[in-house]
Write a structure and sequence with these properties.
602 residues; alpha/beta; eight-stranded mixed β-sheet; four-stranded parallel β-sheet; globular; disordered N terminus; binds FE2/S2 (inorganic) cluster; binds magnesium ion
């Protein structure tokens, strides 16, 4: 069958060049029965023989927007412009739904569904007559899920995001998605606002259609889709309601038809160089700590080696030059007006940080962004005068885990003073572990004075990785107990095998792999153990003897391993059985061997 598929691909039709995979359904005299069946039912929405049998590319539009996925709902409108672009370029659009994801509503966590959306798109792209696809990205997990699917199937694909919401405002100040929740909670806890004002304040951050307007995981992942080359240049930052976004939708529709004719596939675009570019860019924009999980996953599906060492090697020394919340003060509209991603990339090109990797428009990222510039230096800063130096992630190892990342640029001066500058070694600190097993345990006990948390404690959150808390919860960033907050101690170091929200600014060591639930040493840690974190050596260790650890390991095994709550749905159970660690992208392990599968079609 592989040979046949190859032959089918290279055979030419009169009108358009290479034979398209959709013609195996719609124009295949050697299988007349099935062709007739495919055609009669597909035509029933009004298509003609002429359209289906003249070698016109069939372009899928993977629709992620719906009433339960409001961050992507604008795609219902944008899809009309995408279709016009597809038509004008000579293609035919087939819009179809895939499994919806919405970050803030899905329980227990939206990241449980990233791999489900991935699966749903893989099955459609592989099993239906589709020659190329527009991926409608937006909300956090929808972008990586679709890029992962495009990587697995490897037919031409291009991403278009719904676009960030307009800036939120409250009493003359910008209110940003996610970041306002942390702030409003503090105000409510201090008694300055009540519940209705709290809700109003948070709602003010969402003034229009679109995805989050801060540099949280949504804006990060869409920026990285553009950085990888999987969108048209300048696409990611356009606010959802702007006219420019409608225009971009049209151009994206036109371009995917050409990509099919050029056979420009995800594997041509998402190369090792493209991933390295994306890592550099993630530091410059102040990207989310979820980015390594998702990018490592996409890389796994396309077959490019990539791990957290690469994140440190290529990303750590890159400065933060985008002044957006949560790291800075502005929001998406300001960022777009200042030039968006092309202006950021232009700064990096000038410092020789970007490699020439081909993008969806057929030109390289360097071609696309050279000569772009920031029109507002307070929003997109010069490389030489950044908001923060060394804005990337460090990759930690030790006897607590094999890999966990830390964003050191969020360490506050107060924290540095308390932990690092008074320590014997200014790059290392020791503290006493306080261990929580999941968010419920943490909420129940954090303010309990019996725990005796001090300003030098280190908080641990375990049991919240991909298996322990299906999908991995965003709960590693923990606040200090009330009695310390009142003394002005705002941030304690937090370490855990889960994730943290892209809109949070905690100095955490997170995404620890292996997680406690799959046998990681975090499961052996006890409250009261001393731990040592060495920023220079990138080590995180519990100062517990090997003999003692062996004893604890034996005791843990005797009780059947680390205990975690049962699954609540079939998918939770299925995913838990086959999912990998966060450091490896939290992919479905059996899925990774299916690469470039459209070549096996036939
Ligand atoms: Fe969907 Fe932020 S909650 S983009
Ligand atoms: Mg999030």
């Amino acid at each position: 069958p592989q040979k046949a598929a190859k032959a089918a691909k290279t055979a030419r039709t009169a009108s358009t060049g290479p034979r398209l995979r959709s013609q195996a359904w719609f124009d295949n005299p050697s299988n007349a029965d099935m062709t007739a069946l495919y055609i009669e039912r597909t035509m029933n929405f009004g298509l003609s023989f002429e359209e289906l049998q003249s070698g016109r590319p069939i372009i899928g539009i993977a629709q992620t927007g719906s009433d339960i996925a409001p961050c992507n709902r604008h795609h219902i409108v944008l899809a009309d412009r995408v279709k016009e672009g597809i038509r004008d370029a000579g293609g035919i659009a087939f819009e179809f739904p895939i499994h919806p994801i919405q970050e803030t509503c899905k329980r227990p966590t939206a990241s449980l569904d990233r791999n489900l959306q991935y699966l749903s798109l893989v099955e459609i792209l592989y099993g239906y007559p589709i020659d190329g696809c527009v991926l409608t990205t937006g909300c956090d997990k929808t972008t990586p899920a679709q890029l992962m699917a495009a990587a697995t199937v490897d037919i031409p694909a291009i991403a278009l995001n719904s676009g960030p919401m307009l800036n939120g405002w409250f009493q003359g100040e910008r209110t940003g998605s996610g970041t306002i929740v942390w702030k409003a909670r503090e105000l409510m806890a201090a008694g300055e606002i009540g519940y209705p004002e709290f809700l109003k304040l948070v709602a003010s951050s969402a003034p229009s259609t679109g995805h989050c307007n801060t540099m949280g995981t949504a804006s990060t992942m869409n920026a990285l889709a553009e950085a990888l080359g999987m969108t048209l240049p300048g696409s990611a930052a356009i606010p959802a309601p702007y006219r420019d976004r409608q225009e971009m939708a049209y151009l994206t529709g036109k371009r995917i038809v050409e990509m099919v004719r050029e056979d420009l596939k995800p594997s041509d675009i998402m190369t090792r160089a493209a991933f390295e570019n994306a890592i550099v860019i993630n530091s410059a924009i102040g990207g989310s700590t979820n980015a390594p999980v998702h990018l490592n996953a996409i890389a796994k599906h396309i077959g490019v080696p990539l791990d957290n060492d690469d994140w440190e090697k290529h990303g750590y020394k890159v400065p933060l030059i985008v002044n957006l919340q949560p790291a800075g003060k502005y929001l998406a509209e300001d960022y777009y007006r200042a030039g968006g991603l092309p202006a950021v990339v232009a700064e990096l090109i000038a410092k020789d940080k970007i490699q020439p990797a081909v993008t969806a428009n057929g030109k390289t990222l360097i071609d696309n962004c050279t000569g772009k510039f920031s029109s507002d230096r307070d929003v997109i800063l010069p490389f030489s005068k950044p908001l923060k130096k060394d804005a990337g992630f460090l990759n930690f190892k030790g006897n607590l885990f094999d890999s966990a990342i830390m964003k050191t640029s969020v360490i506050t001066p107060e924290f540095r003073q308390r932990y690092l500058e008074n320590a014997a070694d200014p790059m290392a600190f020791e503290g006493e572990a306080v261990v929580f097993d999941g968010p419920e345990d943490y909420h129940a006990r954090i303010d309990d004075p019996k725990l005796r948390i001090t300003a030098q404690s280190v908080l641990f959150m375990r049991g919240v990785g991909p298996v322990g808390y299906p999908g991995a919860a965003e709960v590693v960033n923990m606040r200090a107990p009330d009695y310390l907050l009142k003394k002005g101690v705002t941030a304690l170091p937090c370490i855990g095998d889960g994730r943290q929200s892209g809109t949070s600014g905690s100095p955490s060591i997170l995404n620890a792999s292996p997680e406690a639930a799959t046998g990681g040493n975090l499961a052996l840690l006890k409250t009261g153990d001393r731990v040592r974190i060495d920023l220079k050596k990138r080590r995180a260790d519990m100062l517990v003897s090997d003999e003692e650890l062996a004893k604890r390991r034996a005791a843990l095994e005797a009780q059947g391993g680390y205990q975690f709550p049962p699954s609540q749905t079939p998918w939770q159970e299925i995913q838990r059985a086959v999912v990998g660690e966060l450091a490896d992208g939290m992919v479905l392990k059996p899925a990774v061997k299916y690469q470039k599968i459209h070549a096996t079609f036939g």
